[in-house]
Amino acid sequence: MTTTTGPLATRRLILQGAASVALLGLGNLPFTASPARAAANDKYPEEAFRQKNEADAIKALYGKTAEPSDKVRLDAPEIAENGGVVPVSVTTTLDKVSSISFFVAENPYALAASYKLAEGAIPAVANRLKMAKTTKLVAIVEADGKLYSASKEVKVTVGGCGG
Amino acid sequence: MKRTLALAMLLALGLVATARAANEADYKAAYTAAEAASKQAAGLRNQWTVTVSTLTAAKKAADGGDFDRATAAAKEAEALAKASIFQATSEKDAWKAMEIR
Amino acid sequence: MASSIRVRATSNGDITEVQALIQHPMDTGLVKDPKGELIPAHYIQQLKFECNGKDVFVADWGTAVSKDPYVKFSFKGAKKGDELKISWTDNQGASDTTTAKIA
Amino acid sequence: MKTRSALLLGSLSAALVAFALTSPRVVAADKIDPVADAKAFQNFFFKKFPNVKHEDFVNGPYSMNADLKRQWQEKEEFPPYEFALDAGKEMFATPFKNGKTYADCFPDGGIGIRQNYPYFDTKEGKVVTLELALNRCREANGEAPYSYVKDEMASLTAYMAYTSRGKPMDIKIPDDPRALEAFENGKRYFYTRRGQLNFSCASCHVQSPGERIRAETLAPALGILNAMPIYRSEWSGMGTISRRFATCNSQTRAVPLEPQSDEYRDVEYFLSYVANGLPISGPGARP
């Protein structure tokens, strides 16, 4: 994330503040909201990418919640070399995996990337993500209709000494 | 240790705000002095970015008619310029202390 | 000008490993340019990999994917010489496509 | 802001005094002796980081931190400077309006020669860097020179560096008092403190390589230019040596000089000469 100090950083903080306030209101949304169609369709999950926080984004994308599983191995640096380019990858021993997604909790919009794996695709993916600041990183794997997750904290800060 | 003390002292000296409200004449005097020091620092190829930004802030404040702030900023710019001149001259020999031999 | 997609697909007989690097600014729409105006959001939304006529891998991307995005995955069911078709579309309607032979 | 930098100033000079006391024997270095300087320079780093392989120093921060090295190697599989490299290769082969190309300006057609730059031009009596030679080639062929800090220059130098990858740095100092003077000027610039933060290049790259300045790990000065030009995630773009010098200056709050001004050419000459023997690893990817 290019370092934007000054007015913009404060604007983003206000943004996040507003987001968390809005979220409280959402909290009591009836759980039985219509589950989004299975992620396997071709449509770009517009709604999921608009969600601010990770729980909403998972619900919007998959319509169900995930349970942590040690079969999902999430690989990300402890201290990001640079918030703009963070190499992140996930592999899993689960089979019949149809979708893998990455959520960066502290980003303005939590859902970063979602991958749909067709028949024969090896359940693993590596990519480079942007992280606004030190954040929890969550990887979700949809295997045989159930959701499994792994998460890790990545420390992010700017570089350089003065300026 | 002695060298840095002098540097900090010089910096502090420049920051002393004049008691009575500054008027345009005070500002002009302070600004010309600051500009001269800044030119000298540039001449030594050792200008500081903060000197340049403080000088522009002084000018901006003066254009806005706030001569108190403008004079204070001009004085600070002068102090910064002087500090950078002091740094350039003292480093002429001081650099050898860090040289790997 | 060369395509915006650089891809390397290598097969060890059974599994094909695919790496792709795409030239794209991936602007989030939250960053200001030096003049203080917001740079409009401009990011790849969908990236598709097809082989032998069917999708093998589809990426849906948001604004958190890095500039000049990179992705790596592998899949079974293709062999050396098969053709891999890669295409992307972004939120401003631009797109690009290229094909690569599996080495 | 003011107190923070005063604090920095104070703590820094304390560290300086400590360093000065421990630095090896102080000898009146009136006679300029680049060979001895280079030997002392390299030994300082070899002793300070005994388990870093000598040729690994050219990988800057990645020679200092295992986790960073892993992140870097992952990126090197498909490096972000790939586009600049391809663009540079294409530009290098594209003839100028007069039909000539860069190959006509450089020995061996410009391929595999980066390790000899910068060199001391005895006719001009000054150091000539690769970036300067490229622009002079353009001007000699009626083309407008490129900006020293923008992508075109970075792409050209990326391609030329790539053709020299692995070759040991091989900078020569001719038997010419002006060349010795340029070397000494470069050395003086490298060790001179500047900016309100009162840092010299050595304050970071000699005193504390491997340590962090916020997110970044400081690279050792030895071999620091061998990986140039670099793709920096921080700039999410390519950076030439000129751009790196200017940004380093402004970080210590010193106003940068004009790109390719004598001081920058001389410090590049000094830093490249003391890295003689270490492999060229450009173009590089850095935080």
UniProtKB/TrEMBL annotation, chain A:
<keyword id="KW-0732">Signal</keyword>
<dbReference type="Pfam" id="PF13501">
    <property type="entry name" value="SoxY"/>
</dbReference>
<dbReference type="InterPro" id="IPR032711">
    <property type="entry name" value="SoxY"/>
</dbReference>
<dbReference type="InterPro" id="IPR016568">
    <property type="entry name" value="Sulphur_oxidation_SoxY"/>
</dbReference>
<dbReference type="InterPro" id="IPR038162">
    <property type="entry name" value="SoxY_sf"/>
</dbReference>
<dbReference type="InterPro" id="IPR006311">
    <property type="entry name" value="TAT_signal"/>
</dbReference>
<feature type="domain" description="Ig-like SoxY">
    <location>
        <begin position="59"/>
        <end position="161"/>
    </location>
</feature>
<protein>
    <recommendedName>
        <fullName>Ig-like SoxY domain-containing protein</fullName>
    </recommendedName>
</protein>
<feature type="signal peptide">
    <location>
        <begin position="1"/>
        <end position="38"/>
    </location>
</feature>
From TrEMBL, chain B:
<protein>
    <recommendedName>
        <fullName>SoxXA-binding protein SoxK</fullName>
    </recommendedName>
</protein>
<keyword id="KW-0732">Signal</keyword>
<feature type="signal peptide">
    <location>
        <begin position="1"/>
        <end position="21"/>
    </location>
</feature>
TrEMBL record, chain C:
<feature type="domain" description="Sulphur oxidation protein SoxZ">
    <location>
        <begin position="6"/>
        <end position="100"/>
    </location>
</feature>
<dbReference type="InterPro" id="IPR030995">
    <property type="entry name" value="SoxZ"/>
</dbReference>
<dbReference type="InterPro" id="IPR014880">
    <property type="entry name" value="SoxZ_dom"/>
</dbReference>
<dbReference type="Pfam" id="PF08770">
    <property type="entry name" value="SoxZ"/>
</dbReference>
<dbReference type="InterPro" id="IPR013783">
    <property type="entry name" value="Ig-like_fold"/>
</dbReference>
<dbReference type="InterPro" id="IPR014756">
    <property type="entry name" value="Ig_E-set"/>
</dbReference>
<protein>
    <submittedName>
        <fullName>SoxZ</fullName>
    </submittedName>
</protein>
UniProtKB/TrEMBL annotation, chain D:
<keyword id="KW-0249">Electron transport</keyword>
<dbReference type="GO" id="GO:0019417">
    <property type="term" value="P:sulfur oxidation"/>
</dbReference>
<dbReference type="InterPro" id="IPR009056">
    <property type="entry name" value="Cyt_c-like_dom"/>
</dbReference>
<dbReference type="GO" id="GO:0016669">
    <property type="term" value="F:oxidoreductase activity, acting on a sulfur group of donors, cytochrome as acceptor"/>
</dbReference>
<keyword id="KW-0574">Periplasm</keyword>
<dbReference type="GO" id="GO:0042597">
    <property type="term" value="C:periplasmic space"/>
</dbReference>
<dbReference type="GO" id="GO:0009055">
    <property type="term" value="F:electron transfer activity"/>
</dbReference>
<feature type="binding site" description="axial binding residue">
    <location>
        <position position="137"/>
    </location>
    <ligand>
        <name>heme c 1</name>
    </ligand>
</feature>
<keyword id="KW-0479">Metal-binding</keyword>
<feature type="binding site" description="covalent">
    <location>
        <position position="201"/>
    </location>
    <ligand>
        <name>heme c 2</name>
    </ligand>
</feature>
<keyword id="KW-0813">Transport</keyword>
<protein>
    <recommendedName>
        <fullName>SoxAX cytochrome complex subunit A</fullName>
        <ecNumber>2.8.5.2</ecNumber>
    </recommendedName>
</protein>
